[in-house]
Write a structure and sequence with these properties.
5-stranded mixed sheet; rod-shaped
Length: 385
């Protein structure tokens, strides 16, 4: 598959990773280690300090709240309660052994263990609620970004639709104002050709006149074709046969341009769900685009295949590649890099492909040239061409 450059604004904005994702897995291990180390160090300080140092033991006892609160902040209610239980389990033997001779103080210290659980419960509930609100905010941000992306796509579709309507109006006017006079001029040229044989000195001017009129008729036809599209009549279509037909049709034109058309058709492809006539037209446009891109001749490589339940056709030329800038503009009406081009061939092709429920992509190839890829839906299982 070819790498494809996406147009700006088509990618969904990246959502910051959630709180939980940011702490797993290495971050969680470090935080567990920090809580465990703090709990162990406070307990060790209790056991190494002589019992007569009441003030130090009171300080150490309050230090137990540090690992408990850290566990609540990092791991929520469950982590806070587990840490509180661990602190109580480590501190209880010290209370029972070293303070048994002072019953009132021992009772006070044992009640402090209950306070460990209360603090863990309150802080853990608050932490879980904060994490829940954070997840909800992240989900809202992701939904917002998806909505913005959908809005951008809708605006782009409206922009294309506006151009489409404008072009349709222009095409109708051109049909009335240009095609009829051109037909009359062509008829007059045919009459004049009877008076000037092919060897006559002025016959070349008639030939020039005929060629230019044919070019105008062709351009006018493209405008009409794009401005008044017909809905596709979808039915099972042999993709390989359509590609082979287009290659055969354009082989002589390609040879005159010094281009060799090479086809690599994957055997046993399922039928595509397409309008054969419109698909043929879209492929003709792509073939001609590739042939015209190689002014000095070369190879036009065409391949078919099936990927992810979709059929594809790739048309690759060995010309100068795509122009700088977003590839999206290649498919806009009137955009062209070819002298005398109408800028409608790729626009018509994209319209046909999108009307088929498919997509078209373009990319420059690393070793030179450009590649256009059309993807189409497969026909329902059991469909016969």
């Amino acid at each position: 598959m070819i790498p494809v450059t996406r147009p700006p604004g088509s990618a969904v904005s990246q959502v910051p990773p959630s709180w939980e994702a940011a702490t797993r897995p290495a971050g969680s291990r470090l935080r567990i280690g920090a809580v465990a180390a703090a709990t162990f160090l406070v307990s060790l300080a209790h056991y190494l300090t002589p019992a007569e140092h009441f003030l130090l033991h009171n300080i150490y006892q309050r230090l137990y709240y540090i690992p408990i609160l850290l566990a609540c902040a990092w791991f929520g209610l469950r982590g806070g309660l587990l840490t509180a239980a661990a602190c109580a389990a480590l501190y209880a033997p010290h209370i029972l052994v070293h303070w048994r001779h002072i019953a009132a103080y021992q009772t006070n210290q044992l009640l402090e263990l209950v306070l460990f659980a209360v603090i863990a419960l309150v802080a853990g509930v608050l932490s879980d609620r904060e994490r829940s609100l954070r997840r909800r905010a992240e989900a809202t941000a992701a939904e917002r970004d998806r909505a913005l992306n959908d809005l951008q796509e809708t605006l782009e579709a409206l922009r294309r639709s506006d151009r489409f309507i404008t072009l349709g109006t222009l095409a109708a006017a051109m049909a009335h104002e240009i095609r009829n006079p051109l037909a009359a001029m062509r008829g007059a040229t045919e009459i004049l050709e009877r008076d000037y044989s092919p060897g006559h000195p002025r016959r070349e001017f008639l030939d020039i006149l005929r060629r230019e009129m044919e070019h105008l008729i062709e351009v006018t036809g493209k405008y009409l074709e794009y401005g008044k599209p017909q809905p596709p009549e979808l039915r099972p279509t042999d993709l390989n046969a359509t590609v082979a037909s287009v290659a055969g049709l354009l082989r002589r034109s390609a040879q005159r341009a010094g281009v060799v058309i090479e086809t690599r058709l994957e055997p046993d492809l399922p039928p595509a769900l397409a309008d054969p006539t419109q698909l043929h037209q879209a492929l003709v446009n792509l073939f001609l685009n590739g042939i015209q891109a190689m002014g000095a001749g070369g190879r036009l490589e065409v391949s078919t295949g099936c990927a992810s339940s979709a059929l594809f056709v790739e048309v690759r030329d060995h010309g100068p590649g795509l122009p700088e800038g977003p590839t999206e503009r290649l498919f806009e009406p009137f955009f062209t890099t070819k002298p005398g081009g109408s800028g409608l061939g790729l626009a018509v092709t994209r319209r046909i492909v999108e009307d088929h429920g498919g997509r078209i992509e373009a990319a420059s190839v690393e070793d030179g040239g450009a590649c256009f890829r059309i993807e189409l839906q497969t026909a329902p299982a059991g469909a016969v061409v």
